[in-house]
Each structure stands twice: as C-alpha cells, then as structure tokens.
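S.,

Sequence below, as promised.
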Amino acid sequence: MPELPEVETVRRGLEPVMAGAVIARAEVRRAGLRWPFPARMAERLTGARVERLRRRSKYILADLSTGETLLIHLGMSGRMLISGTMLGEFHHDHPAPEKHDHVVLHMDTGARITFNDARRFGAMDLFPTGEDDAHPLLARLGPEPLGNAFNERHLVAALAGRNTPIKAALLDQHIVAGLGNIYVCEVLHRAGISPRRKAGRIAAARAAALVPIIRDVLGEAIASGGSSLRDYRQASGELGYFQHAFRVYGREGAACATPDCTGTIRRIVQSGRSSFYCPRCQR
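The prediction came back faster than expected:
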C-alpha cells in the first residue's frame, strides 16, 4: 500500500498536467472499485477545471471549478498513467486501453490521465469542496505530520496513558494522518524505540522527540521521490514509486545501520503486520 511519501510523489507528478487544465471528457468504465462511484461521475467531471491539486493523508484531492472535489485513493495496486504530454525528457503517446483502465480523464491540453487498478482496492469519489471534514474517509483523520497542527504537545498528549504498542499508536490515523507501516518502522529505529514498547510508558521527552524524526523521515522520502520524478520516467508514463534506502524495513537478518551498534535486524508480527527493528539499540 503506498504511504504518504509515495502519494505525495504521485500528486506532484500529476500537478503540472492537471492543475489549471480542464477535463474535456471523462470516461468511467465500470460501476466502481472498492466502493461504487458517485452517480453521474463522468458527467460531473466533464468540463470541470482543476483549480487545485492537494493531498490529505493518503488521498489525492482535486478541487474543481464546479464546486466539487475529486477524491482519489490508489489502494493496493492503483496507478496513475500519463500520456500525450512530455514527461521529463520523453513524450508518451496514448497507449492502447488496458483491461484495468477504469477511469480515464482526457484533458483539454491533449494529455490523458488513466487510473489503472488491477486489484480494484482503489477508490474515487466526489464531494462538495471545503467539506473535507464531513467526508467519511477524511472526517476523523488526525493532523498532517508535516503540518503545524502536528507538534510535540499534540503527540505527547495523544500517547499519554495509551496501553497499545507505540507502533500501533503511530499507525492510528486519528493520532497522525498518513503514516504507514514502512515509515513507522523507520521512525522508531531512528528514535531508538522498540515497536513493542507501550505508548503510554514512553517519557514525554522521548515522545516529543518523535515529531522532528517523523518529519525528517517523510521529508527525505518525499525528496527522493521528487528526484525520481525529475530524473526517472518509466516507458509507460507511469508515475512510479522510488525505492528508498530503508534502514530496517525489509532488512531482516541484516546488520543494524546505527553507528557502533552490533545488532541484527529482526522481524516480528504486530496486528498482522511486519515490524522490523533492532533489539539491541531500540528499547
């Protein structure tokens, strides 16, 4: 599942193609994906200008001139394909339609944006612009980890008294929006905190120190993805994900990357998800 940095990478790739352009024609080739599409989605999108392209947690939001916002969730296998425009050094002609091309946006610039989703866990929806807090997928989200509302005071208060492991607490989208399994593993390794430790038993100073670490990890991942947008394009025109250099995630059995640590990365399962950590330097 793409996490916040990957979704932000895709948003940045879409922005120069979508922002300010008009959806000359929208094609909706099935009734829905994970959930049914909204009624008359193709008609409601056709003729709309994309005023702004933004992100909330792991959702891409396109504010339209019609007073509605298009919500896009990539799910597990969703891909945004761009054709008919210059991407980096390459021009991508429109490819032949594929089996899992479910929604196609033909822009007035000649560009085409295709939402391809083989497993159909993605989603699209339309709702009134400015009513993010009323949408069922957005209403209960916590603050953005890169925004001002996510600060030391908020996180210390949110973790106080919690009996859940810190790994589960940071994955709780009510506490902070957009963090996923991969980057929580990376954050806890940098912080030297075991994913098993109870959230409420972490000292306030250590909990507060998680805030800049979270921002650093996400910022580095986004910067890497941004570099991939400038320097690397797949032949299909797909906005691909950059494979980051993880310190712990997926490195079971490898030596710990912490200087002077002689530990070995271990994998455990927490709530059905793999946690990677160093038992020597994460306490």
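The CA atoms of residues 31 and 82 lie 22 Å apart.

Coffee later?
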